[in-house]
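Weekly structure sync, notes
Attendees: PL (lead), two postdocs, one rotation student
Agenda item 3: pending single-chain targets
PL asked that the sequence for the first pending target be pasted directly into the notes so everyone works from the same version. It is reproduced below exactly as submitted, 204 residues in total.
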Amino acid sequence: MSKVKYRVREYTPKTENQGSHSWFAEVVINNDVDNAELAKKIAARTGFKSYECQAVVAAIADIVAEEVLESNRVSLTNEQGTKLVSFYPKVQGSISDADVQKNQAKYPGKTVAEESMLTADLLSWTLGATVGIKFSQQFALSKQAQKVKTVTAADEDDEGGTVTPTPTPSGGGDNPGGTGTVTPGGGDNPGGGGNDDDDAGDTN
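Predicted structure, written out during the meeting:
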């Protein structure tokens, strides 16, 4: 089993509305594996030249970026056909009756939100990524967790900035006790993502 490192961090809220005192776990990242390192590992398994593999990895990154701009979902699978990760465009945007009533300068005399009011300038676009359920379950079963550090409230945050614990998801999906959505948190979890069923649709 591979060792996956984590630390336990203490969270002490400064005000009552920031939750309660708690301890939470966060992953510790050893290294960032770049294209060159990936290429070496691919070359060792396939017999292709390392520079050829690096060119392919770079091309995949470019093609994924191009395809999602065409409103396509791009899924990467392994040789067994297991979906590892999917990339797709995401959009957020809404307008409510309350929004309309608060902005009478823009919507004079209106009190109810209408479909036509949800214009493109109110939309926020991002890229989404989901991890395949089978791959995620395999990772959970194969890893060997290793605690490397405890960070108390008295310690200086070695990641910088304010740390708030990532809420533990609850619900269904493949993620035991989780919804498949990862909430951005402190430390090494910069945010976003979730789990994507290999057979069904997204869980987030």
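Discussion points:
- Confidence is low (pLDDT under 50) at residues 167-192, 198-204.
- Residues 50-68 form the longest helix (19 residues).
Action: rotation student to compare against the earlier draft before next sync.
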